[in-house]
């Protein structure tokens, strides 16, 4: 799931400039100078998330398939990533949760003695995310609207705009598809015991897939909103 975590100074300036452009062009359906990637950020966080699994598999291979060495490598890299994220201003809660995920994955692999079980947390989180996003759409609280509305400090105003609610609901299905696609790749590889292939898939299906998901869901939002709608920042309450 994308997060609205800690925008950098340059990105804040860019957002302010985008807001000014939106105010000057209120008839644009979604704001041609805007994008979900710009609103939500996330590239660096997505890239950082792939480093501990890569370190785990690298340590496991270099130590003649030693799970303890792989787990130690993942924990060390995870700690370094956590320090780096704190230094650049990420929210401590997000950093702690990221490190906790690495620690739990390492403990599971150590407990079972199987390298592929390091990726069980990822499999479970994608299954839970797919279910959560689907339920959110069904109950008319699409999570894409919740995340973007929080990033824009709109609280629940977007839900009182029927056009925005419909657009967020349809665009949220793109995110459901993202999680289902990962499961379709991860589960067979885990079942086959392909640890190296899982690490490669984890990298390939993290930032590149998130970037594609952001682009497609943004296209859906722009496509679904009426041409005269003032955009995501201006719900018609």
Automatic annotation (TrEMBL):
Q: Where is the composition biased (Basic and acidic residues)?
A: 12-25
- Residue ranges for the region (Disordered) are 1-33
Which terms are listed as keywords in the entry?
Membrane, Transmembrane, Transmembrane helix
| Pfam families cross-referenced by the UniProt entry | DUF3159 (PF11361)
Transmembrane region(s): 69-87, 94-110, 130-152, 173-193, 199-221
Q: Which domain of life is it from?
A: Bacteria
Q: What is the protein's name according to its record?
A: Intracellular septation protein A
Q: Which organism is it from?
A: Streptoalloteichus hindustanus
Q: Which taxonomic lineage is given here?
A: Bacteria, Bacillati, Actinomycetota, Actinomycetes, Pseudonocardiales
């Amino acid at each position: 799931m994308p997060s609205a975590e800690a925008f950098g100074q340059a990105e804040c300036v860019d957002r302010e400039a985008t807001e000014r452009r939106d105010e000057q062009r209120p008839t644009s359906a979604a704001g041609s100078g805007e994008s979900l990637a710009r609103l939500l950020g996330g590239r660096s966080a997505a890239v950082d998330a792939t480093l501990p699994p890569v370190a785990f598999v690298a340590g496991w291979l270099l130590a003649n398939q030693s799970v303890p060495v792989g787990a130690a490598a993942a924990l060390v890299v995870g700690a370094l990533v956590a320090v780096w994220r704190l230094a650049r201003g990420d929210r401590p809660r997000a950093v702690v949760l990221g490190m906790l995920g690495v620690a739990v994955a390492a403990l599971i692999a150590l407990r079972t003695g199987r390298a592929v079980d390091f990726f069980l947390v990822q499999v479970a989180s994608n299954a839970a995310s797919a279910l959560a996003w689907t339920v959110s759409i069904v109950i008319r609280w699409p999570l894409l609207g919740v995340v973007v509305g929080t990033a824009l400090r709109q609280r629940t105003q977007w839900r009182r705009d029927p056009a925005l609610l419909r657009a967020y609901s349809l665009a949220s299905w793109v995110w459901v598809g993202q999680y289902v696609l990962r499961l379709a790749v991860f589960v067979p590889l885990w079942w086959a015991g392909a640890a190296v292939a899982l690490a490669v898939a984890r990298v390939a299906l993290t930032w590149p897939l998130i970037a594609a998901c952001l682009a497609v869901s943004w296209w859906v939002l722009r496509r679904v909103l009426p041409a005269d709608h003032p955009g995501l920042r201006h719900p018609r309450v």
